[in-house]
Task: structure prediction
Amino acid sequence: MSNYYHLSVNVISRSSGRSAVACSAYRSGQLLRDERYGMTHDYSPRKGISDCGVVTPANAPDWTQDRETLWNTLESYERRKDAQLAREFIVGLPHQLTPEQRKELVEAFIEKELISKGVVADWAIHAPNRKGDERNFHAHIMATMRTVGAEGFEEKKDRSLNSRDQLKNWRTSWAGIQNEMFERLDLRDSDGKILTVEHRSFEAIGLDQEPTVHLGVHATAMERKGIQTELGDLNREIAIRNRDRGIRSYSNAKHQLDNDLSLDNSL
Result:
């Protein structure tokens, strides 16, 4: 049986009023001083952050390993008011694994797909929301848009990382890394089969299953408060239609809805 799969990528940009320092502070649950805006972002009281860290290429300067220095330097380097500051990955983590194994998965993806391309990765693993699905472990990975060399950030950004093919490669890689661990650990489902994740769309793998829709920040906030939204209702209708098709999809679609509620972030 296929396990839950999630990988999404978005860009943290000044054009949407965001700060890389603020985003990092929120995701890591730390206090960081934002030099560009003269503010201190203190998220140290925030609960539910299991682990976090910064991974850098081998030839990167030592200062890149310090979260506050890293993002403040990046902010000072980017001069455009609409500058793209960081690329953020949100990945779902298998609940069947131990905390150490989830960390191993995240670090394996970072080493293979980000550090190898010369960027710095700032990661944080979040535990499930107390009001949501208890299986919803996930990680936020902020990667610098610029590569880093021995002297610091490079002058030009690697535009090849913005391609659709690169996104497909990241999705494929994340599935492969998980499946390799499931096989190595001999993790099996209730039918005795090795757990797997599937990154391809339902249509691509020949399933007569209708995918759920992404809720977004505002609908997610309302659903968490018990207020049903049009998008939430649509996903519930899709879950019912999939159940009526006679395939194992109702629980999967419901799980997808629960994960959307837990993975979305407004900052």
